[in-house]
Amino acid sequence: MLSKGMLLGIILGRANFVTDIYRNDNSLVGYSIKVVTKVRGEHSLLSMLQDTLSLYGISASIKLKETKNRPRPILTITGIKNNYELFDMIPQHLIPTQTTTLQHYNLIQMLYLKEHLTLEGIETIMQMRGILHVTNKS
Q1: Per-residue model confidence as pLDDT tens digits over 26-84
Q2: Can you give the three-state secondary structure of 38-96, one letter per residue?
């Protein structure tokens, strides 16, 4: 098992945060969002990380091979609730500013509050991700 400090250090230092926005005709706003936190490393480290996360009620899965071209182990944390619980553990002052970590933190907050289910919310998220550029009409 890892201590909470070690867990947070690994997450802040080694994790990659991925946000996918994709077209979904079944969604009210026409888009769905998938958030994933990925950590790559040795299988023994990832196994300890997974066990420690489960103590905090966070589900994570390990794949021994990420892809055919990248045959290394990877731990993934998927879902809004799991990612929210993960970021809720991190004290605000430890999240680096001007990074994708802060952007992902803000995105998870919006998703947890279900703001992505409104047109304004999805537009805000697309602006955050740099997908949608709004110009002021004067």
Answers
A1: 888 888 889 999 999 999 999 999 999 999 999 999 999 888 888 899 999 999 999 99
A2: EEECCHHHHHHHHHHHHHCCCCCEEECCCCCCCCCCEEEEECHHHHHHHHHHCCHHHCC
Assign 39 to helix, strand or coil.
strand
CA 106 and chain centroid, separation: 10
Residues present in the chain in total: 138
Residue 67: which residues within 8 A CB-CB, separation 6 or more?
Answer: none
H or E segment and range at residue 123? helix 119-129
Give 40's contacts (C-beta < 8 A, 6+ positions apart): 14, 16, 66, 72, 73, 74, 75
